[in-house]
Specification:
The chain is an alpha/beta fold and 289 residues long. The chain has 11 helices and 14 strands. Strands 8, 9, 10, 11, 12, 13 and 14 form a 7-stranded mixed beta sheet that branches.
């Protein structure tokens, strides 16, 4: 039986125990603080929760950076040395990061099959793709059958992500809204809805006041994207707001046949740097009959 290594970049936000269970390895993006300190993104819960605290207290936000081609070369070489014969690399949307380009460039320097995928999603939606890839291989599909299935699923838009952002102090620090907008937004407890469109871009689609209205806002957006009654697999995801993420999954169960709800995932350091603690959402896989 051929040995296939699955690599997902760190924005996949996969619960660490699931990544370990399915032998999915991480290609970490990086966090660069204003003082020059650099740290890697991670799927480790304790490290992520510590990051939530540190970034909430930071006066100036860090920047994020994709892995370099050399970083990917080192990863590929490591797994080849461990006996893996083929590699599948799953990357955040090219609309959001240059990670895919780095992974693709590095793959040209190796003689074994390395298939790099622009998943056109991010966060737990990328995590769902990684888990599906692992399960297909576990079910006995060949490397070629697996990459064909995943490529078709991405092309046919089987994976979705929608969430809301609520930390206006954070948005002000990041320069995404003005201080006046932040003051008003925080005072009114506004939630901004965001989804990943078919091209892989992050698109704001509405703002409402309060969590209950935010749930309905997200449910309405999912209804626009996916016909009611469809079979879905869900992974709730949040940055320090797990209860809200689980409520989103519960709300969707009123409109859809939910085949599985995976453990709630933590948004990692890179995603949280861009959306802030308090963000809650759900990743969705549309299950074909």
């Amino acid at each position: 039986m051929e040995r296939v290594k699955i690599i997902a970049d760190s924005t996949a936000d996969i619960p660490e125990d699931l990544a370990r269970r399915y032998d999915i390895s991480i290609a970490p993006l990086k966090i660069i603080w204003p003082n020059g300190d650099v740290e890697e993104d991670t799927w480790n819960r304790n490290e992520i929760q510590d990051f939530y605290k540190r970034i909430s207290e930071a006066e100036n936000l860090p920047k994020t950076s994709q892995p370099s081609p050399l970083d990917f070369e080192e990863l590929y070489r490591k797994f080849i040395d461990e006996g893996y014969e083929k590699i599948i690399v799953l990357c955040i949307s090219t609309k959001l990061s240059g990670t895919y380009n780095s992974a693709s460039l590095a793959s040209k320097n190796f003689n074994i099959p390395i298939h790099v995928v622009d998943t056109k999603v991010a966060s737990a939606a990328l995590g769902l793709i990684a888990l599906k890839t692992a399960r297909l291989l576990e079910q006995g599909l060949s490397y070629e059958e697996t990459i064909e299935t995943i490529d078709n699923n991405v092309r046919d838009r089987r994976f979705y992500a929608a969430f809301y952002v609520s930390n206006f102090d954070f948005l002000v620090k990041g320069g995404r809204v003005s201080k006046i907008q932040g003051f008003i937004g925080g005072m009114l407890k506004l939630k901004i809805g965001v989804f990943i469109d078919e091209e892989g871009g992050l698109v704001p689609f509405g703002k409402v006041r309060g969590t209950k209205r935010a749930l309905e806002m997200l449910a309405s957006k999912v209804n626009e994207l996916i016909p009611k009654g469809s079979k879905l697999k869900l992974m709730p995801v949040s940055a320090a707001a797990p209860k809200e993420a689980e409520e989103i999954a519960e709300r969707l169960s009123k409109d859809y046949e939910i085949t599985e709800v995976l453990p709630t995932s933590l948004m990692g350091k890179v995603i949280t740097t861009h959306v802030g603690p308090g963000t809650a959402g759900v990743a969705i896989e549309l299950i074909s009959d």
